[in-house]
Design a protein that fits this description.
CATH class of the largest domain: Alpha Beta
Strand content: 15-25%
Strand order of the largest sheet: 8-7-4-5-6-9
Number of helices: 6
Oligomer: single chain
Distance between the termini: 60 Å
Number of domains: 2
CATH topology of the largest domain: Aspartate Aminotransferase, domain 2
């Protein structure tokens, strides 16, 4: 079966992610979605195990989500937060804050995982800037980690084995250490992680599994380690 005209016409104009476009296999033309399935132009169906990079975790064409999107588009598609606000964002923030532990009670809305980690990094830096603390400008990350594709998040991904090694030297180097698990006796809680690394001058925050945790805020279940 020949490919759709829109695919052949657009091939030379779309920049595809995570591949070398000159050698990558042709993209599969998707014409419809249903639940966990992608329907291709030739009628074949694929199970989308990645859920479109986790954005469709509830399935495609979910009736409740589709109805809410239609209603919102008809009433008010988008309003910026610059001096303005709207009901859906306030309701969502209130519901999310009720789920958070301790005194965590604020929500910053972002459009992607990479951007959310970058925002968290900026918040961590600004925390010390606002307090007048100088020199704490570096982050502590773990080898094997992946935290996003924006410029700042690339600096806390694995510098050698990650997909961003090509950009080495473009952005400031962060402190990256090796994480190891330490076995503890039964009944003493979960095994803590320890970080083996070099001198920590200027290091200010831990980065682990898309979490930014400040000094003194580490929890075992968050994967935050101790400096060894």
């Amino acid at each position: 079966m020949s490919e759709p005209a829109w695919l052949s016409q657009g091939r030379d104009h779309l920049w595809r992610p995570y591949c070398q476009m000159k050698t990558a296999n042709p993209a599969l033309p998707v014409v419809a979605t249903r639940g966990s399935r992608l329907v291709l132009a030739d009628g074949r169906e694929l199970v989308d195990g990645l859920a479109s990079w986790w954005t469709a975790c509830h399935g495609y064409n979910h009736p409740h989500i589709a109805a809410a999107v239609r209603e919102q588009l008809e009433r008010m598609p988008h309003v910026m937060f610059g001096g303005l606000s709207h009901e859906p964002a306030n309701r969502l923030a209130t519901r999310l804050a009720a789920l958070l532990p301790g005194d965590l009670n604020h929500v910053f809305l972002a459009e992607s995982g990479s951007v959310s980690v970058e925002i968290a990094m900026k918040m961590a830096l600004q925390f010390h800037i606002n307090r007048g603390v100088k020199g704490r400008t570096r982050f502590l990350a773990f080898r094997g980690g992946y935290h996003g594709d924006t410029l700042a998040t690339m600096t806390v991904c694995d510098p050698d084995e990650g997909m961003h090694s090509l950009f080495d030297g473009v952005m400031p180097r962060q402190q990256v250490g090796q994480m190891v698990h330490v076995v503890v006796a039964e009944g003493q809680g979960a095994g803590r992680r320890q970080l083996r690394s070099g001198p920590q001058t200027g290091v200010r925050q831990f980065i682990d599994q898309d979490q930014v945790v400040g000094p003194g805020q580490g929890r075992d279940d968050a994967g935050v380690g101790e400096i060894a």
